[in-house]
Amino acid sequence: METDTIAAISTPMGEGAIAIVRLSGPQAVSTAAGLFQGKDLNNVDSHTMHYGKIIDPETGEMAEEVMVSVMRAPKTFTREDIVEINCHGGLVSVNRVLEIALAAGSRLAEPGEFTKRAFMNGRIDLSQAEAVMDLIRAKTDRAMDVALKQMDGRLSNLIHNLRQKLLETLAHVEVNIDYPEYDDVEEMSHDMMEQKTKEVHEEVERILETAKQGKILREGLGTAIIGRPNVGKSSLMNALVHENKAIVTEIPGTTRDVIEEYVNVRGVPLRLIDTAGIRETEDIVERIGVERSRQVLKEADLILLVLNYGDELTEEDEKLFEAISDMNVIVIVNKTDLEKKLDLERVKELANDQPVITTALIREEGIDQLEQAIGETFFEGDLDAGDMTYVSNVRHVQLLKQAKQALEDAQNGMEMGVPLDVVQIDVTRTWEILGEIVGESVHDSLIDQLFSQFCLGK
């Protein structure tokens, strides 16, 4: 249990109706009570809110008009006493309240320290704590649902069950080895170890299968819009974003840089990147934009290749198809309102079974078909975040891969006739690796590093 009291601004900086200064620790209530003019906060009921004023002890004058929430341990986020001072939104007012709270003896919280205290005090495990940041950063409803499920302990419960299954197996085998009562005890122990490691291995594999989708939900799908100049790339971006983020003109080469925007496509967050038209050019500024576009191309998860229905297929178009031949691609034939000049059969041949969507963006035609194609490319149709335990955190994925390898080592050992007491080493290692996901076997330095990535006030 921490001994000092921390304070921080827990709402985004900027103008707004309300801003909150949060205090947590053994002196949170008494500190706030010493600054508050109104009811005596030391004597109010827990989980109540009170109107009053914050008085600056140095001047004795009113610093802010506030509403103060008092929440006493252990039924709080940190399992410590918590006070939240609700003041007027604005940089000056909220900073003034924070400064007064710090001058009264509180310490400025480190990034993520409130959530770290919740973890250290046993309210949540490490995977639930990491889900807090996923929830804050969620870009879509589905991403938020996945984070909420993890915060609620869905992944934690799954990992705990797998660890318990391994632990019971290890204990059973250990007893049979140390206290053999029957001649066939070794065969029984071997069969049980083989069955249980297989069951856990299958479950770990199943969780890992969701990693790709989980990563997309958590970080967004890096999507590059490419094509020759003036084929409608910026119009496509504006159509997906539903507002004019990119400049749309009839002049080739208008987009000189990479433009990024997050959009929600049927629950899938797209980190949409509008690139400069890829072509040979003498314009120095445009040439820099083209080089950046080529770099974006290498890092993208999905390519939207835009072609012009009213132009014949060019050598540049064919080179683009060649450059993205081994990537996830959706071909968009735009400007179908123009007279047809494009050889669609050749386009489908070059697309090599990748989706080909026709659009007339100026008439807002074809967007629904495009969004459906994006969903089917990565999620094989509709994504159901409610029935799956998605793993999206890179740390979790790496640990699950290590656990999978340790289980495979154990299985290979049993097939080769390795003694069970040696096989137990790999099974025990699996149990410890899974424990790192929920924080039951993790170093303090890793905990400090993880929580340092959180925003201040959380």
TrEMBL record:
The keyword GTP-binding applies. Binds 1 potassium ion per subunit. K(+) binds at residues 230, 249, 251, 254. It is found in: Cytoplasm. This is tRNA modification GTPase MnmE. Exhibits a very high intrinsic GTPase hydrolysis rate. Involved in the addition of a carboxymethylaminomethyl (cmnm) group at the wobble position (U34) of certain tRNAs, forming tRNA-cmnm(5)s(2)U34. Its cofactor is K(+). InterPro entries: G_TrmE, GTP-bd, GTP-bd_TrmE_N, GTPase_MnmE, MnmE_dom2, MnmE_helical, P-loop_NTPase, Small_GTP-bd. It holds the Pfam family MnmE_helical. GTP binds at residues 230-235, 249-255, 274-277. The gene is mnmE. Belongs to the TRAFAC class TrmE-Era-EngA-EngB-Septin-like GTPase superfamily. TrmE GTPase family. Mg(2+) binds at residues 234, 255. (6S)-5-formyl-5,6,7,8-tetrahydrofolate binds at residues 22, 84, 123, 458. Gene3D superfamilies: P-loop containing nucleotide triphosphate hydrolases (3.40.50.300), Probable tRNA modification gtpase trme, domain 1 (3.30.1360.120), tRNA modification GTPase MnmE domain 2 (1.20.120.430). Residues 220-379 form the TrmE-type G domain. HAMAP family: GTPase_MnmE. It is an enzyme of class 3 (hydrolase). Keywords: Cytoplasm, GTP-binding, Hydrolase, Magnesium, Metal-binding, Nucleotide-binding, Potassium, tRNA processing. Its EC number is 3.6.-.-. Homodimer. Heterotetramer of two MnmE and two MnmG subunits.
